[in-house]
Backbone:
């Protein structure tokens, strides 16, 4: 006869009983234990009912959580996502929900450095400022008579501090620099190519340069939610001069992806909620030039000239169309240099070599560049 084991309901000792037995008396404590009949089908049904109950409870929990998420998304517009990103978007602080003023202030710092009397004098930087004179600005150039307006390192620093001082939601800021730029070895480990970028004040030989890290901490980091900053940097090695976390990599046809350069930084190098966008003359490994190849009769920075001409060309430009148009203007000028005669041929070769720079775009956040309207 087959048997099975149960435990005494009183003392817990294990007992062996026949399969069909309904009760058994414990041989130790003498207590009688009632035994349920063994029914595999009944046990299976009970197990199914328990599983169904747990599944129903789980689905109710998921539904409740999903409703909470949907409500949160509807009440707060999430920023900074893009299907063009090459890397996951870094975690950034929640922007302030302060209402944005519809009539913010406009403020600009225009800085042109010619380096009179120095080996690497520039002829087009001041002309670049004259082309940008339609802005409401603080201008710093060597031709200025007041000592505080000469583009020394001290004055440029003070001007950048003034640019963001008291910045509020709705404000629009512009920093336009035309002058020399260069690179040095990066010792903080926050540059993908291993080099920091820098700008050259007129007194750089004695006072030194201004590093991209300082520019970022001065005019990018303090930018509040609802404010925007545009930087127009006409200088060599200026692709990432503001140390913005996202770099727009565009090919010749205008297709693009966003590269994440912020993941290397030990501290996130973005704004305090505002939007910072930089147009630069060239990539970090390229040089920019003063040239007459674009204007025909005036020496200008190639980047500044192409930027202004592209912006004037049509109303309602997007950032993508503007960047692509700037590049096309430089490419067309380079391709159109077919002159006759030995001297003209030599000049055309020089101009083609000069116009090898490719303007770049970087930003504090990713966005769809062909749908976002450009507006200073």
Residues:
């Amino acid at each position: 006869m087959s048997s099975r084991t149960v435990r005494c309901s009183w003392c817990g000792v294990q007992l062996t009983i026949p399969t069909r037995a309904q009760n058994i008396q414990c041989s130790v404590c003498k207590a009688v234990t009632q035994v349920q009949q063994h029914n595999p089908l009944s046990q299976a049904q009970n197990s199914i009912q328990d599983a169904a109950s747990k599944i129903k409870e789980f689905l109710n929990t998921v539904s409740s959580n999903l409703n909470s998420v949907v409500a949160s998304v509807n009440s707060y517009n999430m920023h900074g996502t893009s299907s063009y990103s090459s890397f996951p978007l870094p975690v950034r602080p929640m922007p302030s929900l302060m209402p944005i003023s519809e009539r913010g202030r406009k403020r600009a710092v225009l800085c042109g450095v010619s380096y009179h009397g120095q080996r690497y004098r520039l002829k087009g930087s001041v002309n670049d400022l004259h082309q940008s004179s339609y802005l409401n600005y603080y201008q710093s150039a060597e031709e200025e008579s007041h000592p505080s307006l000469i583009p020394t390192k001290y004055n440029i620093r003070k001007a950048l501090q003034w640019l963001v001082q008291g910045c509020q939601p709705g404000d629009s800021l512009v920093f336009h620099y035309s002058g020399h730029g260069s690179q040095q070895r990066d010792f903080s480990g926050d540059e993908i190519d291993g080099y920091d970028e820098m700008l050259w004040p007129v007194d750089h030989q004695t006072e030194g340069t201004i590093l991209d890290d300082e520019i970022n901490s001065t005019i990018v980091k303090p930018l509040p939610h609802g404010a925007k900053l545009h930087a127009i940097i006409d200088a060599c090695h200026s692709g990432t001069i503001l140390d913005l976390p996202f770099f727009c990599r565009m090919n010749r046809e205008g297709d693009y992806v966003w590269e994440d350069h912020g993941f290397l930084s030990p501290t996130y190098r973005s704004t305090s909620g505002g939007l910072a966008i930089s147009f630069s003359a060239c990539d970090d490994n390229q040089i920019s030039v003063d040239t007459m190849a674009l204007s025909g009769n005036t020496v200008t920075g190639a980047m500044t000239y192409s930027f202004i001409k592209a912006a004037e060309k049509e109303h309602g430009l997007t950032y993508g169309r503007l960047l692509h148009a700037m590049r096309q203007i430089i490419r067309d000028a380079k391709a159109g240099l077919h002159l006759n005669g030995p001297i003209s041929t030599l000049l055309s070769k020089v101009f083609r070599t000069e116009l090898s720079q490719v303007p770049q775009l970087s930003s504090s956040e990713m966005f769809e560049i062909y749908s976002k309207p450009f507006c200073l």
